[in-house]
Amino acid sequence: MAATGIDPDHSNTEERYITFGVSKRGRLLVIAHTEKMKPLELLVLVQRAKENEKYMKKVKQTEKDELRAEYKRSDFPGGLVRGKYAKRIHESSNVVVLKPEVAKVFPNEDAVNKALQSLIEIAQKTIRLTKRST
């Protein structure tokens, strides 16, 4: 679960947050965001960052409005909140957790989607055939 705190370096005109989490591969994720951002927008930003990881490592850090290289708990006098967005993400997303025996059969989300799409097509054809015969 992620932990979120108010960004200690951001301006007083807009409240910005820093969220710390861990990816499936065990990598530390640090995301700066505002309350206005929707959870799915945050997920898209994370995905884009992941896709552009090689490019991002080469970019020189010149802007003043950047993340620190290191944070300490003491940088967040208001503390960190665990799971601040968990309920909102759960309510606004369509995440399905597969049983372990099912997950073994499908190596990735494309495989799951193809299998489900095939089932939908078969079901639709069956319904059409049934309607014709009655």
Question: Can you give a write-up of this model?
Answer:
With 134 residues, the protein is of the alpha+beta class. The protein folds into 2 domains: 94 residues, no CATH class; 39 residues. Helices cover 41% and strands 15% of the residues. It contains 5 helices and 4 strands. The protein has a 4-stranded antiparallel β-sheet, with no helix packed on it. The termini are far apart.
Helices and strands, with pairings:
Layout: E1 3-6, E2 16-22, E3 28-34, H1 39-51, H2 53-58, E4 81-82, H3 86-92, H4 100-103, H5 109-133
Antiparallel strand pairs: 1-2, 1-4, 2-3
Characteristic terms for this protein:
4-stranded antiparallel β-sheet, 41% helix, 15% strand, 2 domains, elongated, 134 residues, alpha+beta, 5 helices
What form results from the Cα inertia axes? elongated
The neighbouring-strand order within the major sheet is: 3-2-1-4
Mean pLDDT: 76
* Share of residues in helices: 40-55%
Q: How many domains, in number, for the residues? A: 2
Q: What is the C-alpha radius of gyration, as a whole number of Å?
A: 21 Å
Largest sheet composition: 4 strands, antiparallel
Summed up, what is this model?
This protein has helices spanning 39-51, 53-58, 86-92, 100-103, 109-133; strands at 3-6, 16-22, 28-34, 81-82. It is α+β, with helices and mostly antiparallel strands and 134 residues long. It has 2 domains: 1-94, no CATH class; 96-134.
